[in-house]
Design a protein that fits this description.
two-stranded antiparallel ribbon, 20 helices, 2 strands
Length: 459
């Protein structure tokens, strides 16, 4: 038993070291407002501690990255030294339920403004507190999880995860909420005795965190329906639940058919004003199976899960994405065997699938139709891979089922070396792309000839 504990601690400690290094480097190199919609997030977070103007009145703060200033080296004087027009905004507290996810970066931004009121300083401290939240939250989740620690650590260190962690977006809060919920579920799924008050407090706290995060995070609530009934004692309700699960296990095919029917009814309801079930189903099929129709399927949606950076301006090549997915699969299959109910494992796949559908529905209605006015669109526009990155850990327990059919034996030392190798390689690639794109005058198109000329000049 002590060996397992040491192993779990080893994963979390390695993660802590790597995320601290990766996060610190990114904090200093990632240009301000270079994360998608970061200017908008900056404006929303800023309103929490200021005079309550509507977000639209703070539009002057919702700007995009000033790429030319980084390429000509004027960014420091323009964005760090030069003071902004923040003094006109009075200090007032305006913290609503839907803004709690912005609280860490808002506190950091307030500290930065008090130190020196420039975009660069305010952004730096806002990102710093978000990064601290990410480091602490992910470390706790990985350390306490009963399975999939390597996969959790790998996903938390993906280049896309690092980019979002070092931003003033709400994504760090969102990522942490998913990881903490998953970690709690792995603990509850392996317990064999009734819960104590402490565990009920953990459940309530986790559900609240999910509620404060994105709406799609609530898909994790499906997990709580699959928990072993023994956790809630021997009573009438738990006995009924046990009988229901026995019936589901006995009539699997019927349950699957009912599940498909329920999903189709759900789609019929959601697309009732947009062409009905068949039109809605075709839109989803076009979005996820037809790259000739939805041209962003591969470069933005699929690659974006691991690495499509900036405002979708530069990304990892497909061969790196493929290798990363293969490695994540191998790590999932080679995870330590844990005795959990099969329904918990199946639910992971359902959560991932449901999140994809929920996000797509929101993007279709609120972005494709409402914002872009593409009323004749036959696919969903605006989907990005980063929306699905944290949910990758929900697929990890499927490796427990695949262990019956695929035998992969990897020692812990080998896992550690592979993990370190892939994590460091991904991060270096991410940083090199960032430096080439933002810090060279031509985006790195001719960096080797320029480097050669520079070396010749030194000689």
């Amino acid at each position: 038993m002590q060996v397992v504990e040491n192993r779990d601690n080893q994963v979390s400690k390695i993660f802590l070291i790597l995320i601290t290094i990766f996060g610190s480097v990114t904090l200093f190199l990632q240009p301000i407002f270079s994360v998608p919609d970061e200017g908008t997030h900056f404006a929303i977070a800023y309103t929490i501690f200021h005079d309550g103007k509507s977000n639209s009145e703070f539009g002057r703060y919702a700007q995009g990255v000033d790429i030319p200033s980084y390429r000509d080296r004027s960014f420091f004087s323009k964005h760090v030294v030069k003071k902004g027009d923040f003094k006109e905004n009075k200090l007032e507290l305006h913290l609503g339920i839907r803004k709690i996810q912005y609280l860490p970066q808002a506190v950091g931004m307030l500290i930065g403004e008090m130190i020196y009121p420039s975009y660069g300083v305010i952004m730096f401290f806002g990102r710093l507190l978000n990064l601290i939240l990410y480091i602490v939250g992910m470390y706790v989740a990985i350390k306490k999880a009963k399975t999939a620690q390597w996969v959790m650590a790998m996903v938390a260190l993906l280049p896309m995860s690092i980019q979002q962690a070092v931003s003033v977006s709400y994504d760090p809060f969102f990522f942490v909420s998913i990881f903490l919920a998953f970690s709690l579920i792995t603990n509850l799924s392996t317990k064999k005795e009734p819960l104590t008050f402490k565990w009920y407090a953990y459940i309530v706290g986790t559900v609240m965190i999910l509620f404060f995060a994105k709406t799609s995070a609530l898909a994790m609530g499906l997990y709580f329906m699959t928990l072993p009934t023994v956790l809630f004692g021997n009573n009438y309700v738990t006995r009924v639940m046990d009988n229901i699960w026995k019936l589901c296990d006995k009539y699997k095919k019927t349950v699957i058919m009912l599940g498909i029917l329920a999903f189709l009814l759900f789609l019929k309801y959601e697309f009732r004003n947009y062409g009905g079930l068949l039109k809605g189903s075709q839109i989803l099929l076009n979005t996820f199976t037809r790259p000739d129709i939805q041209t962003g399927l591969d470069p933005i949606l699929t690659s974006g899960i691991i690495g499509n950076f900036g405002w979708l301006t530069h990304r990892l090549p497909e061969w790196v994405i493929i290798i990363d997915f293969i490695f994540l699969t191998i790590m999932a299959i080679s995870e330590k065997k844990v005795d959990v109910k099969k329904r918990m494992i199946v639910t992971g796949g359902m959560v991932y699938f449901l999140n994809i559908v929920l996000v797509s529905l929101v993007m279709y209605v609120q972005w494709t139709l409402d914002r872009l006015k593409w009323v004749d669109a036959v696919f969903v526009e605006g989907n990005q891979g980063r929306y699905y990155t944290p949910f990758l850990i929900c697929l990890a327990p499927i490796g427990l089922i695949l262990q019956k059919y695929i035998k992969i034996e990897i020692s812990e030392s080998t896992k550690k070396n592979l993990f370190l190798g892939f994590s460091v390689f991904n991060f270096i690639y991410f940083i090199v792309l960032m430096v080439l794109f933002y810090y060279t005058h031509d985006g790195g198109v001719n960096f080797l000839p320029h480097l050669g000329n520079l070396i010749k000049g030194i000689k």
